[in-house]
Write a structure and sequence with these properties.
Helix content is 32%, strand content 18%. With 490 residues, it is α/β, with parallel strands linked by helices. The chain starts with a strand and ends with a helix. The chain is built from 15 helices and 19 strands.
Amino acid sequence: MAKKIAVIGSGFSGLSAAAYASKEGHEVHLFEKNSEVGGRARQFKTDNGYTFDMGPSWYWMPDIIESFFNDFGKSAADFYTLVPLDPQFEMVFSDSTMNIPQNYEEMKALFERTEKGAGKKLDEFMNDAQYKYEVGMKDFVNKPCYSWFEFMSPKIAKSAFKLDLLTNFQRFVRKYFTHPKLIVLMEFPVIFLGAAPKDIPALYSLMNYGGYKLGTWYPMGGFSKIIDAMKEVAEDHGTEVYLNADVQKINVAGKKASSLTVNREEIDFDVIIASSDYHHTESKLLPEEYRNYDEDYWEKRVFAPSCLIYYLGIKEKIPNLKHHTLFFENDLELHTEEIYKDKKWPTKPLFYVCCPSKTDPSVAPEHGENVFLLMPVAPGIEDSEEIRERYFMEMMLRLEKHTGASDLLLKIDYKRSYCVKDFQEDYNAYKGNAYGLANTLSQTAVLKPSLRNKKIKNLFYTGQLTVPGPGVPPSIISGKIAANEATKIN
């Protein structure tokens, strides 16, 4: 029987949930508090010709994103042009740089030049990571995770040992490589899973396969092309999308979520899927007696980083800059300790620069450059304009040193910063986190916040604070799982 379903929030998980629920013939209404869809993957344009993606910029695991469109009889190519990046990215060290080629054989040669025998070791690493990817991303992450019994299938049980859930990622990488630069290269992707490599299960070597082996890509026009495409898919199947629609309350009657209060108007629904921040949904939208978790629970969770971002328009081309550049002149372990353990602004920060105008001329004026600076920081720390500017100056000096560009500060055509306070204001993000809940072993699968409300049978959660976890592909999968579970309700 068709149901009237509300989806709160239009990030990847919300759009995914809306699309899948609509496909099953339900009446779906999606509410977005901001003036455009996309959540953290929104895009904005400036009056002087720059187009900025606000969040995700790494197109990894292309097969997972493709499978979303395939589920609706479509392909990503129906909506946008995907191009491979070569090099995939550049890493800047204190004494040298390393360009990571798109071609895997060339990557093996790079590893071999850096450390004798590392080319063969890379093959061994990637073979293991491929196995984890195929089991992890196609079997392991597609469960609603209500119970460990969901993982008792013969295939998963047989794979349990090879998935390396009890080995930490730092130790796993060092089984294969000893050169410090190769270790950093292999460890850096897990930073955004929300913990130091020593606290992340070795299972997540699957990210290295999903990135390095499957390649780093870019959707022409920007990352929001994926959002636009997902919105079109959802609307084609009947989803109604409402912008500037602030959900103020989930109303409960008889242990059932009966309606939403949106912009002070009450609207009845049969089922509600909250893609909004999990903590915000429970603490601000639900009566206390119907919450899954109290404040003490959230305070004890390990969160992925927030970040300091600068969106810059530069009015001339910057030489010697790639599409993706990682500035790792300083110690990775120190920076991660200061994010996850000390929870303070970094003393010797690492940071990342994205310059999509190197690939896509549409995102900047003809002779200009679109530059995105990102520095991971601890969630919940003090955030002021003065602190932001101090780190901005350090990042710009290091960018000038690397590229040989001079007087970049004088060539800034547009500038906007974004940090902890903005994540809180725009997305109601707990402590201003940018990437959700850390994928530590104690916060994996069944140990994550529940996909369903345990006291209200028709309320479900989706997104980066529940299963399967943070990142674009996992969020798309999360929406699919939530929609499947929501449509089972009688």
